[in-house]
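FIELD: query
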Amino acid sequence: MAEPHSTVIVGALAGAGASSVTILLGAQVDTLVIGLIAAVFVTIWLETIDSKVKAASAVLFAALLASYGSPVAASWLAATVPSIAGNLDALRLLLALVIGAATPNAWPVVIRYMRRKGDSL
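FIELD: result
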């Protein structure tokens, strides 16, 4: 098994490399960084992510999903619950943290599902 710290460093470097590309594609920098940091911290404690490739892909996907998904989720949540619509920026950052922390937990499930689908073809 790879050392957890080196695995997380590889994931963070992959996320940093992808962030420069996604900024050009309209990603929001603050939510990208918050999602990246949350994903790195969560990936450290996950036992199911046991290789550098899994760590890098989980951190990268979490950062991208937090960056592109949190503004959409914040707008939808503000329209659904009008009492929290006053501070949309704080809601967007909070949702980026939640998405960045929750996505690496779901990533091993997605990998297993894709592996089963590939084996059935």
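FIELD: remark
Residues 31 and 67 are 5 Å apart (CA to CA).
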